[in-house]
Amino acid sequence: MIARFGLVRKREDVTDAAFDHHWRDVHGPLAAKMKGLRRYDQHRVVDSQQFGIDAARGPWNLDGMSELHFDDHAAMRAAVTDAAYAPTVVDEGNVFADVHVVACEKHVVVPVAPGQGPYVKRMTLLRRPEGMSVAEFRHEWLTVHAGLVRQWPDVLGYVQNIVIDRYQADRDRSAPYSAVPVDGIVEFRFRDRETAAKLYASEIVARTQEHAAKFLAEITPFFVETRRIV
Question: Domain spans of the chain?
């Protein structure tokens, strides 16, 4: 399974309400026609505070993230070259100022059990330090860090999305790392913000964040509200 995330920023002349309506009711149905699409979620940003993290924040100022699932990387590439995708690209200019895209492997560390809602969701963009290899980053995040987060109480879900490809203006041709400097996207689910705040003040999270400082240069979180399109 490949998850294709669109990192979305709206045009300045478009209101929040108009953006939300267009994204959900116009753009969403267009993207839903993509060939081979297995799932499509829209994550609307509702809060961009750093919230419990003493780390450098990246330059990303997002209004939302799209998440589209395909069977594999080849299926995703086939979808963006198919004629059914063309209207989606044309429509982007109506409300989006820019869109950066990352293709990710999805690793579920703490699965979301059925019936666990309601919950709040936080999604975080990660960037590794200069000089750290992709192999080193994968080991520190997918193995060491995941093991630490598994020890956290009161986590309703934790997913690591590790970036394997990037796109900017050309959705079929890979962009350089400098154009989309993101190495991973975290998905956290908590019962509520109060529970999350208490957790982030705990000793186990402090130890986890000490480890994060060893393999992350930027941590850019967003609280989001998620809706399923497909």
Answer: 2-228
Which of these, 222, 31, 8, lies nearest to 95 by C-alpha position?
8
Sequence-distant (≥ 6) Cβ neighbours of residue 201 within 8 angstroms: 52
**In 122-192, which ranges are continuous DSSP H helix?**
134-138, 146-149
pLDDT of 142-169, one tens digit each?
999 999 999 999 999 999 999 999 999 8
Please report the sign of the dihedral spanned by the C-alpha atoms of residue 97, residue 102, residue 108, residue 110.
Answer: negative
Query: Which pair of structure tokens corresponds to residue 43?
Result: 């994550």
Handedness of CA 9, 11, 17, 19 (dihedral sign): negative
Beta-ladder partners of 125: 185, 220
In the block, residue with structure tokens 């509200």: 225
- Tokens describing residue 144: 């060491």
User: Average pLDDT, stretch 31-44?
Assistant: 98
Which architecture does CATH list for 2-228?
Answer: 2-Layer Sandwich (3.30)
